[in-house]
Amino acid sequence: MKHRGFGYLEVPIYEMQFYQVGAPPAPSNQPPTASFTYAPAAPPVGTQILFNGSGSSDPDGQVVSYAWRFGDGSTGSGVTVQHAYAIAGTYTVRLTVTDNDGATGTTTRQVAVGQARPPLSIRLSLPKRSYQVGEPIVIDYNTNREAYVYICDVDASGKVTLLFPNHREPNNRIPAGAHSVPSGGYTLLVSEPTGTETLYAFAATSRLPNFPTSFGGGFTVLSYNPSSFLGSVQQTMQTQFPTGEWAQDSLTLSVVSSAPQSGTLWVTSSPQGATVTIDGTPVGTTPAQVSVAAGMHTVTLSRTGYQEETRQVNILAGQTAYLQVPLTALAQNQPPFAVFNTFPSYPTVGQVVTFDGSSSTDPDGWLISYLWDFGDGTSAAGVQASHSYQVGGTYLVRLTVADNQGATHTTTKMLSCRFRCPPATVGRDR
Fold it and tell me: CB within 8 A of 305, min separation 6: which ones?
């Protein structure tokens, strides 16, 4: 401070700076967010429900613990837990998560638990227990829940045949209630041999791998060893399905002879495996044994790669007819033959040349395409094509033809294109 005369003081001004010593204060911890899912969405009583809290998160750290309250007095811990309710009702499930700094987050969801489902059941029934050969039969069955249903027949010889599902009724996912086989559109006829037959019905909440999922004509023969086959089905149900999620039933019926109104047709082919059609109706594949009405019938055999064969067969009531049909393999496709002509034969530069492939042939079908390669980097398509060359020289022209079965053939020709000579001048030299 200085004194200058009277009335004022001169005071110098100094700049001051302040510095913080040590680390800045740590930011406050952000709490975690709790979130969870559960499955199944509509669980019945006694069903184990999977609760999953892996969707929980922490914005500035990590979730280190998961505490569950299931609303029925029970608790649990962990990212995922399972719990089953003993009484139907709606429960408030609470999940509390804790992060690595001790902060917590909580969420709740309502879980509706329904009454326990009754064990799956299936019951077979018939209007009577004795049938004559050739008589129509309707099989009734009842399920208490939606299920996949399979119905088999074991005849007196031990042959196991799948009656349902079949090529007429391939969908065997059946709702609860009363049903019949056949349900319409076709008729089941009792066939030989006579004796005691047994019907078996199996039901499960998903498909049984012991049965086919696609069907050809006729009914599928599953086995000629009924005890082994039925044992394998029961083992599958017992080992792959929980108790109450599968069921079975059976009943027996008697098959008796009747006054012969039909006969039996044995159909074989060489080679076997041909589809057999009688009067327009597929009945199976060779070798096939078919019960048909007495009289004249048209039998057709077809197999991929062989000519279709048709025979007329007279069936006598009560007797067996034998039909053996050799199949003739279809001839292999013969390739086409490409031929073409050009006009003019000796073109000049710039002159339009016509290329004609109409002389090409196919010995066992017809031609469907003509592709031209003119040898100068250009191409065309069609029976006939036109092209002119802009540079003199010799060109390799190529024609490729294709027939209706995909076979091809290519032919080539060398075509010389000359420069056009200038017109001659007539007169005397000067």
Answer: 329, 330
Q: Are residues 70 and 150 in the same domain?
A: no
pTM equals 0.43
When pLDDT is averaged across residues 319-327 and rounded to a whole number, the result is 93
CB 285 within 8 A of CB 273: yes
Domain containing 374 — which CATH number?
A: 2.60.40.10
- Kind of pairing, strands 195-204 and 295-302? unpaired
Expressed as residue numbers, the domain containing 389 is 341-417
The answer to whether residue 351 scores a pLDDT higher than 90 is yes
The residue with greater pLDDT, 65 or 420, is 65
From edge to edge, which strands make up the β-sheet containing 63-69? 75-77, 63-69, 89-99, 104-113
186 domain residue, yes or no: yes
- Is the residue at 426 inside a domain? no
CA–CA distance, 168 with 178 (Å, rounded to integer): 19
Quote the pLDDT of residue 23: 59
Using CA atoms, how far residue 301 sits from 133, 295, 426, in Å, is 26, 19, 84
Give the torsion through C-alpha atoms of 292, 293, 296, 301, to 10 deg.
Answer: -20
What is d(CA 414, CA 395) in angstroms, rounded to the nearest whole number? 6
DSSP 231-279: HHHHHHHHHHS-TTSEEEEEEEEEEE--S--EEEEEEEEESS--EEEET
Q: How far is CA 326 from CA 123, 331, 334, 365, 388, in A?
A: 46, 16, 24, 26, 58
Task: Name the strand (E) or helix (H) holding 226.
Answer: helix 226-240
Q: Mapping DSSP to helix (H, G, I), strand (E, B) and coil, where does residue 14 land?
A: coil
